Structures are given as C-alpha cells and as structure tokens.
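Exercise 7.
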Amino acid sequence: MARVWVAQCKVHGFFNRKPDVQQGFHELSKLAKDGVVEAYTPLAVCFDYGLTPNRQADPQRAYKWYKKAAGTDTRMIAFAYYRLGVLSNARPTEALKYFHLSATNGSANGQYMLGLYYQHGIAVKANAVQAQKWYSSAAEQGDADAQAALGLLLMDHGGETHKGVGWLELSAEQNNARALLRLGSFYEEAQDHKRAMTYYQRAAATATADRDLALAHYLVGINYRMGDLGLTTDAQRAVQHLTVSANAGYAPAQRALGLMHAQGIGTPKDEVKAHKLYAKAALQGDIRAIGLLAEQNEHGRGCIMDIKNALQLYEKAANAGSVAAQLSLAELLQRIGHRAQAFPWFEKVAAASEELNIELIHQRNTARLMVARYRLQGWGGIERKPAWAFNELITLADCERFVDAYYWVAACYEEGAFVQRNILKAFEYYEKAATNGDIDGQFQVALMLANGVSEPPVVLIKRDHARAFEWYVKAADAGHKTAQYSLGLYYAKAISPVTEIDNDKAANLFERAASQGLVVAMVQLGKLMLATAGQEQEALYWLRRAASQGDAAGMRELAAAYESGAASAFLKDGGDIANARAIALQLLKKAAEEKNDGLSWCAMARYHEQGWSVPVDIQEAVRCYSQAETLDYPKAGLALADMYERHGMWQEALDKYDQMASKNKLLSSVGWKSRLAKGRLVVFLRKGTAEDELTVFTWLHDMVEQDTGAVEPFEMLGACCEYGRGTVQDISSAITWYEAAVAQPKQGKATQDIDWVQQRARFRLGVLCFQQKKHAAALRQFQAMGPLLEKMNHRSAETRQQARLARYYLVANLGYLLLRGDNIEHQIEEAKKWLSEAADEGEGAAAYELGMWALEKDDDDQEAKKRFDQGVSARHAGCMRQFALLLEREQRDDPKWDGHDTLEWLEDAARLGDVEALVHLGTAYERGLGAGIMRGQIEKALPLYVAAAQQDNIRAMIKAGETFSKMGRHCEAVSWFKKAEPYSLTARTTIALYRLHGRGGLQQEGGFASLQLVVEETVANDDDKRSMSLAMFLLGQCFELGRETPKNLEESLKWYHRAVDMFENTEAMYHIGVLKSMAGDDVSALEWFRRAAEKDRHCESLYQLGLFHKLGRAGLEANLTVARNYFTRASDQGHPRAKFELAHILWRKQEYQDAFHLYDIAAKLAVPEALRELGNLYHQGFPPVLPRDYGRAFNCFCEAAQLLDATAALMVGTYFEEGYLEQQPGAPSIGMDRDQALQWYETAYRLGCGSLAELAIGNLKHKMADELGPEASEEAEDLREEAFVWFSEVAREFREETQHANIMIALYHIHGWGRIPVDPEHGFEQLREIAEIGGTQAYAEIARCYDEGIGVERDISRALLYWELAAEVQQDIAAMMRAGEIYEHGLAGHTNPTKANQYYVRAKASASSQRSPSEVTSSSSSSSSYALSARSSMASLRNRPF
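Solution. The predicted structure, written as tokens, is:
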C-alpha cells in the first residue's frame, strides 16, 4: 500500500511535490503487473485521464484495469464501476449495469448517473420514482449535480416546489451552474428580480461546462441589454457577457450580439461582424438569425447584396414558422415583381393567430393591408374582390387603428375606387395618416391644402399655403421625394409663407429629391445651378440625367443651357457657340417630335427665326409655333404673333390676334391677351386699318362690360377717344374713360401693389386735364402720383419719363459756366450757388456737375449722392450711373442687398445713351452684384461691352476682348484688343500673349519681342501697373518654358520677381514657388505658395499648401486638419484635384457621404484618380454610403483608363477576365473575354503599371493555356512560355507584391510548364527560399511538396506544419481542409478530432465569406491551388482599405 501511495504522489504531485508522471506511472505499472491489487485503480486512472508518459489517454487499457479492480479491490469497487459505466457510455445497456453496481456500492456519482438514466429512459423504461430515489441517495451524500437534478425533478415534475428549491439552494452553495440558473429563472418568475440576477451572475462567474457558461452569460448579457431585472441598461456590459456566450456557441447570444453590432449599440457599428454572428446562429437553426441573415442579403449590409440567397433564407425561416420572415419574404417578392408568389405569404401572415404580441400584430395587419390591396388591384392574377378589400381597409383603419391603412382608405375615397367619391372623407383619412407619421399621407394633405379642392360651386377644401408648407416640411424631412421637390418650389419662388427667395435651400431640397430619381427635381436643380457661378457642370449633369430618361423638360432645359453658353466650357471644341446651338437644336427636336412637347416646338421656332444652326426660315418658325398650338399649347399663338411684331409683319400679327380672338372666348387667358395685344398695336402703334380700329374699339367696350376689374381696357378706350382710334376724337370721353381706369379697384393684388397701367392712365388724365385748363383736377392726379414718383423712377423708362414730366422745371446753366467754363475766372462758391438753384429746380446737368465735384474734389459721398439723386429725377443719364455706383459702394458689404436697384439705374442710364453705364452693367453681370445678380453671366455682359466698345470706349474694348477670350472666341477677342492697342498697355500685353500662343488668327511669333517692348514703357496708374506686371510674368513664362527664347530658369525667376515687385502678381508668386520646389528648396517654395494664397486666395497655391501639410514637406509636421482646410479653400474655387485630395481626407476621417460627393464631382471633372477611387468604392460596396455596383465601377474604371490611368486600365482588364458584371443582376453584360482582358493588361503595362500589369499578363496567359484542349497543346505551351517570361520580369526582385511571380517560377521548374526543363528539386528550393525571406504565399506549395514528395522526401509532419501556416497566415481554404484531414485520419502519427473539426469549421466559414464566386472556384490543374489564394496581385488592389 505504501509503495502504491508513493507512486500516486509522484503521478499527481501530492504534498506540493513536483509531479513525475513517468516515474510514478512506471512504478504503478510494475506493482499492478506484480499483482498488487491496490495499484489496479490508480493505474486505470492514469490510462483514463492521460497521466501516461506520452500524455495520451488509453480508454481500452483503463477499462481493463477498472475491470480488474472491480473484481478484487473492495475499497475502490464503487469508483471502478462508475468509471466502467462512463467508459461504456456508447453501450447504454452495459453502462446502466455498471452505474447500478456503482450505485449499490454507495458511489454518489454512480447514484447520480443511475438517476439520470431512469429519469430520461436511457436503456431502461423511464421511471421518475426510481430517478428521485437515486438522486436523493447521491444528494444526501452532498453531490451537487444530484442535488440540482433532484431539485429540478421535484419542481418541474413532482409539484414539490419548496422542497425542490431547498435542494437547489444546497447545490447552489457548491456553485453548481444548473442549480444557479434554475434558481435564477425561479426568482425571475416570482418577480424577485434582484435575487434572480444574483443567481445568474453567480452562474456566469462559476460555470465550467460550455452549455451552462453560455446560457448564464447570455441571461446576464440580455438583461443588461434590455434593462430588465431591475438593471439599468448597460450596453457595454451586455456586449461583454453576450460575447462570452456567443464564443461558447450559444445561438441566441450570437444573434443578440449580432444585432448590437449591426445597430452600433455598445460597440462600433459593424455589419460584417453582425453577418458572421448571424451565420453562426443560423447554422444552429436559429430562425430569427436566419431571417436577419436574409435581411442583410436583401439590402447588401455586411455582405454582397444577393436577392436569390435572401429569398432562400427568408423561405427557410418562413417555413420554420417565423411570421416576420414570412412577411419579409412576401414584401421582397412583391418588390421584385413576383406578385403571384408573394400573395400566398401575405395571406399566411394575415391569417396568423390572434394571440400575438404587439410586434406580430403589426406584422399581421401589414399583411392584411397588402392582401386587401391585391384584392383591389388584382395584382399577379389574383381574383379581385373590391368590396371585400375596401371593407378590410376600413376595418384596419377604424377598428385596428392601423396607421398604414389610413392612406389607402383615403385613396379609395379620393379616386372613387370601389366606393362613392368623397373628397372630404379622403382628406379626413389622409390627415389621420399624416398625423400618425405616414409620409405619403403628409404629402397628400400638403398637396390638397396647397391647391385647394373644389367641386363647383362648392369649395370643399380651402387653399391654405401656410398649413400646406408645414406638411410639406414634415414629409420632406422624412424623405418623401415629391414633397422635397414641392418644398423646394416654395423657396425657389418665395411662395407664402416663405417671404424671400432662398436658392440654397431650394437647391438642397431639389437635390435630395433628384437623388431619389425624381426627374422634375433634376430639371429644377439644373436650372437653379445654371444660375450659380461655378456649378455649371453639376447643373449639366442633372439636366443630362433628366434628358437621358426621356423627360421633355429635361431635354428642353438642357438645350437652353447649350443655347445660353452655360454648357460651352464643357464641349470638346472649347465652347463654339454654333456647335452648342446645334446640340441644343437636336435636343429640342427630340423633345418636340418624340415627346410632343409644345414648349420645345416654340423654342425650335426661335432657332429658325434667328438662324441658329439652321438657315433663317421664318416660315419654318411659323410651322413650329403652329405645331405647338396643335398640341394644346395655346400660348404658342401669342408667341407667333409676337414674332410677327418683331419682324414688322404687322398684318400677320393682326391676323393672328384675330384668329386667336375668334377661337378663344373673351374671358379665357389667351382670348383676353390676344385682344389686348391687337389693341396695343392698333391704338398705340397705329397699325391696321380703320376696320381694325373699329374692331378693337368694339372689343374694348365688350371687355369693360365683363366687370373683371381689369384697368387696361378702360385706359385703352381713353386712348381711342384721345387719339380718335375707332371713334371720333373726343377729349371729354377720353377723360371719362381715364377716370374710370383710375377708379377701378384692385383685383387679386395686395393693397400695397401698384398697378402701373392704372398710373399710366392717371398720368394721361392729368395731362389732358392740364391741357383743358382743369388745373385743380390735374393737380389732384399729379398729387396722387407724388408718393409714387420714387417708385416710378425704379419701375420702367416710361414711368420715369412720366415722373420727370410731372415735376419738370426749366433751369439755367449759369452755375456750370462759373464752375467749369473756359477762359473765365472760376468762382467755385458762386457756381455752386447757381448750380444748386438749377438742380433744385430739376436740371439734371447741374445736379451731375455738383455731384461729381463733391465726389472728386470735396470727397463728400453724401452730398454727391444727394445731387445725383436730383439728377436722376431729371432723367440725367450721368446722374443715374453715378447714383447707381454710389448705391453699390454703400451696400456691397450687406449680404441681404440684392443689387437690383443699382442694376436698374445703370440700365436706365444706358438706355439714355450713357456709354460708361453700359460698361458698368457688363461688369455687374460678369462679376455679380449683391445677392441677386449672379456672377458669370457673360452672355448678358458681352453685348453690353460690345455696345460700349462700338462707341469707342477703350475700357469696353478691353472688356469685350477679355470676354470673347473667356468664351473661346479668340479671333473676335483679338479684333477688339487691336482696336484698343494704341491706347492701352493692357491691350498691347494681351496681343503679345496671343502671339505667344498663335491664337486668334495671329501667327505664333513676335510675342516675346512684343513683351520686351511693353516692359520698357512707363506706367501711369494702377491699371498700367497691373498690365506691366502681367507682361513681366509672361516674360518669365517664356524663359521658363523656352517660348521664342532659350529656356533659362534663372532669368525666369528674375522676371517673376519683377512681376511681384511691380503689382503683387500672384501667378508669378506661384511659379516662383514651383521653381523653388523643383530646385529642392521646399522651405522657400512653401513661403511663396503661402504668400500667393494670402494675397489673392490663389487656387493652385492653396492646393500646393494642402499637399505640403498633407505630406509634411518643408519641415512641416504632416497635418491632415490643416491640409483639409487648404484643400477645402481650393476646392471651393473649383480645383479638381483639390476636390479629390479633400475627398481622400474626408474618407479617412469617416465622413463618407461628403467624401463620396467630392469624389463624384472630381470624377466628373476628369480627375483619373477620383474615377479610380469611385470605381474601387462601387466595386467593393460601402454600406450605407452605397451598395456594390459592378456596372458603375466598370464605367468609372473605363473613364479613368481613357484618361491614361494605368491602375484603372488594369482593373478594366480584371472585369473582362473575372466577369464581375455577370455576377450582378441588372448590370450590363460584357461577358468574360480573355482577349479583351489581355489587351487592357497590356495597356496598363504600357501606361506604367509595372509589376502588377506584368503579373496580370503572366497569370492570364497561364490561365489561357490551361483552358486550351489537348489538341492545342503546342499553342498552350507557347502561351506558358510567354507567361514564364512575364513572371521572370516581375521576379527580378522579391517584394510582397511580386512573391506570386517568384512562386510561379518555382512551379514552372517543378512541373516543366512552358518547355522549362523539369527540375522539382530546384523548384522546391526556390519555394523554400521564398518562404525564408518572408514569402508567406509559398507555404501552401511547400506543404504540397512535402505532402506528395515533390522535389523533397515525403514528410507528412512537415507538410502539416506548412499546411497550418498557410491556413493561419493566408487563410487558405485548401490548407484548412488538408490540415483537417491529416488530424482526422492521424496521417502525421496521431489523430486529433477536435483540431480536425476546428479546421473544417474554419474552412466552411471562410468559403461562405468569399466576396465573389470567382474567388472560391478551384484553380486549374496546372496552376495549382496556389492560384486560388494568389490571384491577389489584383485582389489586393481591388479590396484595399480606404
């Protein structure tokens, strides 16, 4: 006995001695073999628990020695029988026998197991009494498992709860997990939350079995997640516990943790992790997890969007009884158009049990609603049951209070579908839907309130713009695209309650709607952007998108953009107006002829009238207007008559007005306007015959009888009587009619609005009264006009003339002579006195002289403004111009000033012949004026400059030349510069520049010499200094680029410095910075770039500063925040590459939406890297910013490749090789085309893609060889020879991205491909050398060599080592499978089922997570499984992180 005890102490390390298993085992073996009975059981234990020299358990030998011990060692007989039972577990009857023997010999373990067998009927008929008996025996001995089992049996089956709890408490004292968990659930049911949570937490802290550990941590975690059992919600603790449970394989925990990752609760949002967790739970049959997996597949969240797989998963969950999955399956089938298949699932959910929770009741009602809609519409061939369907909708709405039903009930009432039409009922239900958050209901309420609804003579719903606006806001905020568009109109047109136009808000709303595909919003957004400088290209994008969808308005507005010149800068020829108009005409023709768009026919008429892109053809214009009329666009007739008027075709105009008057009733819009238009021709322009005059006179009498409140017919009748048109001249009657016109009340206008026709009648009335000596009456009329005189000055030329005549006085010119007269003594104060008197009496010239004197000599802006204002009243053009400029100077810093007042004064001055006003008007349109006149309107500025230049204004000549130059019309530009050349340094400098470039009809010679002459001139003012600085800069350019002089960078720098010294030329500063950078002087370069940026926000300099801070050049620390600021400022000025760099930074900052938007803009501006980045984004997909879209990715790569981007060309090749477009439903098909792929790879190589392109070419040629049949073996070997050459080029030096080529070289030697001599040993050595220097991709091939004895002696152990390395490092699926096989079958000397199973599970998980089918397809025979993992020279490119 002592020797046995000593041996056991050695084996187990009793009494703190160091274990010596080998020695103790040998001693026990010897004692047992010598027949020492006491050694039998200890030796069996060694074999049973692996306490042997090789640490391997040996169940057979353990069984043998336990058997001996049971027959001889009475002390250990109970334990021996118990272990025999355990070892016989696979043979239940035999195990039962041994457990019975163990139990009857007093073993608590045996008694517990015997109770377990009786309870569950294992190898014996189930018997709860016997089970309780044996559990009790073991429990009384203190066995915790038995106590727990007995407690559970008494509580769950014996009805003895109190007694059962007692046994569970005893078991729990020993930290038995089952007892702790059951006690937790017991107290949870008893609402003793604190004790319940205490038991769950104890179970989580003490459980050892995976099952108990998983359940305990799940219960703790889920209660922290939900805030149940008296806990405060703690998402982070929930994640911790659920992670433990999920890792232990508990499906509900995996699903719950997946949801937290998906929603970003307690952990960063990660749909990919969520997907993996759902997949694990789904593999265990968790129905909800299967549904969640289906949802991810449906929407492409955490995985590739896969509708087919989503349907399969939904169906699996649905068939398992998940109501949520049944509804989701029905909705997805409905969405993809499989209505007939969707309907039975909707019916199934609709018929679900009434005993449902709130969530399931909502799902059932959703399905009932859909069933009703199917029965209404008969979708999918389903039998229509309209009466039943409407009744179901009413039931859902009124009884179930189901919000989604309100809208459909309302729609039925509004349309009168299956129920009598009732607008008030419709509005009632729409309002219910809206109030409950239904965005379609909100939109319908807004629409009805915005327009009002009438069924004459009854007004059912009164128009209410304010309430409509509120509902539009709610629907738009919730994402309703038509509401967003409608709300945009409110801001674009200042519809009440919006009081001021807000184009920024309008554009934002239009863009949100357009981004959802609303074509009308695209058109409005494009129109709005065209009016904003710098947004022309984005505007064209939206208009083109609308036009591409066949929208007539989109085509028409796009044509208008080309016509106006807004699109000119983006045409290939640089903006030729003829070409732009030709494109516009084609768009209009398509909209007119294909879409029957009357407005487009009218627009085409203008082209034929003006001779734009077609010969002038008035008859064809007439035909176009007539065609528009036939398309129910009656205003075309008015436009046709107006054209007749413009061309002096008075009779045709009169006839057309007659025709429209005869066809259209008097009170119709066209009928009324056509009669008035003819009246103006006849009465005011004296066109037509006496018969026409009589007709008009008759019409006017009819019109005044209609009691419309219109003023113009009364006023025109007064003119008829005053001038004798259609009646005898009768001043008394004229006065009567004018008085009637003045007396007409305002109709449909705000009380503060002025009816200018009425004021014109008042003026004529005052004049006639004055002429008739009715001075009191005349005075009353002029006094009535008095308060309006200021407004009349701002209204029109006609009202301004009326205002001036109403207060005109004749004044003397004495003051002017005293102030500025020649050959007389100037008497300044006396002159001012006389001029003041004259000005005060309304003499404009006097006011102008006083104003200019105050402005130029006295520096008194207020006095100047006062005098100019006097002159304005006298219709003095110079006063109007100077008054306008003073207004601009005063208000230019006010962001709310719209500039219209200044613009109108300048227009008036120009109409009165003021040439300088024309120049200032042009400048206003070119540079912008206030908030209301957008900059960049050169199509409006140019005619003004030309008109002034034609009157010999030198500054206008320069501006005309500069404007023509911006438009690319260089010959016309040169013409104006030449006219100004004798008088202007600027013109001479610009002509020299044109000579340098050989543009504008000038030879490319003499520019350098001209500049040398210019810089010798003297300068008199700032304009000359600016021009001189430009000339110096251009000389610097000549020396830098070698234009008409040898290249000389030192001389170039000298001239750039002179340009800076002369007038702070920022272009010169920038070029100094560039030259300094080229010379390696980054510090100086930085300073020059900074100086240019600070001086004039120089765009290129801002971009360079961004690069310096991004890259940490010139001693700066790399700082993305500062770089972002500079790139933003450059981007705001339209710098394409700055937009790209800014997008790159924003992406790194995880500001994905803004980054994507900038990538998109930079791509549209032809930045190849931006196109490539977009291609990468679309290729990979990046939820929620954008789903994977191979079609868009391919287009982006193609565009970037056309811009000579080598990497993009490589990606185009991969699309042809891999056939990505075939893997995405709905994408355009290009097929898998190896030849096209090869051409693109070769293009990438020529563009400098380097080793990636070489590797791609080699791989493809190798693959093409494999695909050839045996009959083409020679051709295949030729291809492999070529592939070997490409691999050899790449393999010259070892890098991470070239290791595949090195491995392929080795494989060529091993297999003798491409006529390379077979040399397996050399090939193997190459593989080994690759692995030794870090080539991890070689592990799998080395493993295969050891596994199959290729080039090295076969060694399965070494093979296993490398298979495991390939599995761990490369995640190689084949390596995982092979490692599993070796462990499963013991091919390396020993089996290990656990590790084998781990590898099989990992392989399966890896295969299911592959991104595309092409990445999980086994490789060709010759390229080996290595091609599977190493296709990667391009996979790394495609899948690189952003």
